[in-house]
Amino acid sequence: MLLEIRHRTEFHYSAMVRESVMEIWMQPQRSHRQRLVSFELEIDPAAQLFSYADAFDNAVYHFDVPQPHDRLKIHARCAVETEPMDALPERLDKGEWDRLRSEFVRGEWFDFLGPHGYAVQTEALEAFSKTHGIEALRHDDPLSAVLALNQAIYGALEYQPGVTEADSPIDHALMAGRGVCQDFAHIMIAICRSWGLPTRYVSGYLFTDQSGGDRSDPDATHAWVEVFLPSLRWVGFDPTNNALAGERHVIVATGRDYGDVPPTRGVFKGDADSELSVGVSVRQARVATSEPEFLRMGRAATSAGRRRHASALALDHQLQQQQQ
Description:
CATH class of the largest domain: Alpha Beta
Number of strands: 16
Shape: globular
CATH topology of the largest domain: C8orf32 fold
Strand order of the largest sheet: 15-1-6-3-16
Number of helices: 9
Largest sheet: 5 strands, antiparallel
Helix content: 25-40%
Radius of gyration: 20 Å
């Protein structure tokens, strides 16, 4: 499936600020089931872009706008070709639990085994687990247990934007009984890690199919989880939509929780309030062999000399330099 993605982020300040420094996690990953066809970043006011690979091998871009400004616009455009996920077995043998307890697994994936940031055990999570019989799911094989957990979280919580914020602890969603994909992912990560399953947070995009039952907002970024099972490696689960991560899911970055991989993170100098607006569009390309229209538009803007664009293909070599 060839997908075209646009991600617009705009900061508006109540007064002129003197400088902005920003990091960006927006470039989709490359893997055996995800091919990055193109990626461009457009910054306004214009700024020189640098890049590095973070501790989890995600592509991170960063820039500095030193001159005074009262707005900052970041527009990312990319085309990604995805492949369907390999079929999973009906179940795994219960010896998988022993393999998960091996020194190799616990050493190799140490970062994704303990509580961290938003994905932590709380009294509200313990109450949620008791109410919905979560611990009983653990007695099955790991794959069946995680599939059941995925479904249980989907059934227990409603999807509703505006109830929680990006920095809300999981207790807010648990007490309200509703939240967004980020909340669902953190809750599932905390439970899986308490079972001894290496689990990581995944940020990215979803080509939604609301007629098919997807609850996710089609105009927003998406989040889900990946669980490491020694017999299968990393497997993606989407508790927001009670689905396995497949060809409609585009992975941008993975980390311990949202705090490791926000789409943008930065600071500015000045005494001003900031207002953030975000827009996301994910659509299927009509013809896989044709050039996406937004790439032609991007080149036209570059030739006009009004903004600087960064191509992922041109900057990949900088990822090796680990620029800070």
